[in-house]
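Quiz preparation item.
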């Protein structure tokens, strides 16, 4: 009786058995009298046995029920983890995951609120609507500790913080639940991992899009540059024939067209260099390069642009060699010198100057100076902060190319106002280490 119905039934059965045994078997039979005191001990044992057995059985039944509940809870959590992390890799399934989590723990309602740079965002709301102005949401998100509120029918509303790596990303609101705290905590951790996984998938998709966009840009630059190389070469050959056959009247026009063609050819070479750098097919090879040699190569690269212009070259005696890729450094200086020639008046001298960096002995400065009208302040600020291709329309393609090539060698390009009028285009590069004596 104790094993089947519990303590009350077993106690009543024990008393009934004692009375029957006494009336029918213990002398004097047929009476309710117990003459032998030893029989009192035997009959009392019936009652004690029922009490002990009922308690043992009740405890075993409770443990069996708890074990069954834990088994059911583990199965539910396992199914939830499979749904959250193995069912899909698509972005935007977080709301479905939160809804499955609420159904798993038998909640009557609730939802998921995420925190970001802006106001809280309600991802999913089940049953009773969520109010982003609920003060418990803010307090739980700030403290990172769960909160409980009593509800009807002995149930409760639970606010679970979703934290990964010490940072609270949101709150899972569970309304009308009787689930154990351990089960709720496990569900909260799973949903927090699902939130972090969603963020990771979103960032990965964004990075893949950026990578594909960068690859497309590089491929486009290379294709366009190669396609333009053939007509540019044909134009240059045609101009050379025209120069030999035309008279003095057309010489100036031919010279101007040749200079612009040379400038366009140089831009194509710059774009090809940028495309190779972006694609990783060309790696800068820094080597000690004397500033005087870089200046000489720059002047030789601009025969038509500098025709008839006065060039002054100054190299300070204590200027170290530049640790740079000579080809890239010459391309940068050629672009800067070409811009200076176009900006400055024809009768004003252009200056090339090299000197150590006074604030850092491990670097040197290569300056291109002109007496033009100067550079707008927004272009100077953009050059100081590092030009990007998106700023090419404002700063000019040549300056964007110079900035990109300089960064590839660990250098910078800056535009400064020159005392007395004009602009200083400054290329700052690492200095080569001094050779041992």
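Solution:
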């Amino acid at each position: 009786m104790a094993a089947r119905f519990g303590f009350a039934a077993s106690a009543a059965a024990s008393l009934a058995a004692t009375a029957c045994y006494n009336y029918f078997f213990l002398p004097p039979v047929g009476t309710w009298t117990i003459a032998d005191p030893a029989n009192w001990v035997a009959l009392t044992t019936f009652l004690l046995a029922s009490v002990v057995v009922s308690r043992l059985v009740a405890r075993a039944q409770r443990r069996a029920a708890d074990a069954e509940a834990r088994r059911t809870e583990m199965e539910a959590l396992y199914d939830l983890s499979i749904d959250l992390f193995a069912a899909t890799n698509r972005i935007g399934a977080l709301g479905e995951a939160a809804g499955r989590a609420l159904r798993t723990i038998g909640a009557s309602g609730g939802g998921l609120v995420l925190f970001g740079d802006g106001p809280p965002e309600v991802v999913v709301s089940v049953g009773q609507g969520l109010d982003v102005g609920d003060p418990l949401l803010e307090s739980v998100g700030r403290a990172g500790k769960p909160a409980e509120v009593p509800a009807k029918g002995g149930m409760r509303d639970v606010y679970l913080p979703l934290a990964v790596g010490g940072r609270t990303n949101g709150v899972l609101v569970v309304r009308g639940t009787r689930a154990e705290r351990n089960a709720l905590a496990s569900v909260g951790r799973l949903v927090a991992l699902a939130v972090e996984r969603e963020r990771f998938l979103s960032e990965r998709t964004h990075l893949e899009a950026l990578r594909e966009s960068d690859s497309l840009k590089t491929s486009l630059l290379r294709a366009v540059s190669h396609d333009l190389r053939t007509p540019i070469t044909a134009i240059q050959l045609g101009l050379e024939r025209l120069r030999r056959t035309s008279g003095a009247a057309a010489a100036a026009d031919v010279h101007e067209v040749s200079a612009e063609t040379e400038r366009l050819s140089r831009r194509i070479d710059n774009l090809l260099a940028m495309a190779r750098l972006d694609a990783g097919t060309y790696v800068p090879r820094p080597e000690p390069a004397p500033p005087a040699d870089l200046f000489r190569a720059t002047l030789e690269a601009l025969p038509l642009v500098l025709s008839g212009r006065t060039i002054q070259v100054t190299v300070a005696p204590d200027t170290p060699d530049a640790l740079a890729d000579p080809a890239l450094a010459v391309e940068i200086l050629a672009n800067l010198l070409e811009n200076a020639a176009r900006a400055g008046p024809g009768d004003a001298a252009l200056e090339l100057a090299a000197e150590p960096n006074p604030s850092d002995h491990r670097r040197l400065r290569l300056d291109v100076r002109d007496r033009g009208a100067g550079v707008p302040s927004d272009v100077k600020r953009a050059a100081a902060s590092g030009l990007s291709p998106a700023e090419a329309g404002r700063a000019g393609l040549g300056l964007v190319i110079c900035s990109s090539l300089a960064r590839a060698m660990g250098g910078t390009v800056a535009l400064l106002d020159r005392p007395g009028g004009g602009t200083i285009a400054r290329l700052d590069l690492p200095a080569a280490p001094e050779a041992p004596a």
